[in-house]
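Illustration 12: ParA family protein.
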Amino acid sequence: MLHYRNEVLAVMNQKGGVGKSTTAELFAEFMAVNLGKKVLLVDTDMQCNTSERYVEMTPVVDDPTNEAGFVPTLLPDFDPEVDTHIRPDSNIADIFDGLVCEPRETAFNPDNEDDPIPGIIDVMVGHPTKLEQVNGRYADNSVELVENIVNRLQEVLHDPQYGDFYDLIIIDTAPTRTPLFRAAMRAATHVVIPFEPEQKSLQGLLAMYGAVRNERSYRNGDRDVQLVGLVPNKVRSVVSSHREVLAYMYADPHHSGLMPPKGIVLPLTAEISARDFKKVKPDSLFKLPRSNKQRQKGEDMMIHIARKVFAGHALSPEIEAYAKNRGRK
Ligand SMILES: Nc1ncnc2c1ncn2[C@@H]1O[C@H](COP(=O)(O)OP(=O)(O)O)[C@@H](O)[C@H]1O
Ligand SMILES: [Mg+2]
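Figure caption equivalent — predicted structure in token form:
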């Protein structure tokens, strides 16, 4: 029997490039910068975009199998005498060997002298080649695969030690239906699906709903997985096909209940793509002035997600208070 103790939001879509990492990062930043919450970001994608954004990684020059081109740095205070359950390059792939993954500190914390924020973002970093190996370790549907990979992330992330410290755990996921995709689904209490409003994306969304339904039928009792909804991303309101696809989705019963309130989207905008460059200041959409239109749009979407994830939760009144007062500060 699996026990679900913590709030775990998985950002999922089988397609690459739709904004999974972006949505995971924006939501983490919104919660930490604007609401002062403690967030643990878990990077299970072998591309490790999220790890690279927040944590310094080490370039690799001599390993042709490592297409991402970097690996996690060594822990600065690693002591082999004491740290027997941790590897010096501690990363999320280690949990599948029965080891501990040490959350890494990022610049998003109250002790950052240059740019303190009220909350915290810590990251369990990925490892490009080791995560790849995890996916290929066992035969499809073998008992070992389910016990050692698919269920393992769930067991780790629902450890009370994380829930006691963090308000929320966010998993950035791999694009394909790999064992790691299944592990993220198993660990999740909530799932959010970013997508681009294009005709060819719609079939993939139906497949995602099917994956969530499958997971619900697997869980017995303790806690179901909630599909909190869709995040229309890279939306260009001047493009008629975008408007048409969104209108279709608001009318279609498969999608309509999962859509945010009309007008709430993440637009295709330089304020969001600028985040790809590490040196850009400010380093978060939510550190731009409150008057910035793109920040406001991003916030509208993040408030919507927060309301869904924390519906009926102790944090719900704080989210409502923020939503109510933000125009006046
Ligand atoms: N709303 C947006 N506006 C501009 N660029 C975006 C937006 N959303 C995502 N991007 C960019 O698109 C690329 C893919 O996004 P990403 O979040 O990495 O997708 P995924 O994780 O699903 O593969 C990244 O370079 C990202 O900066
Ligand atoms: Mg990604």
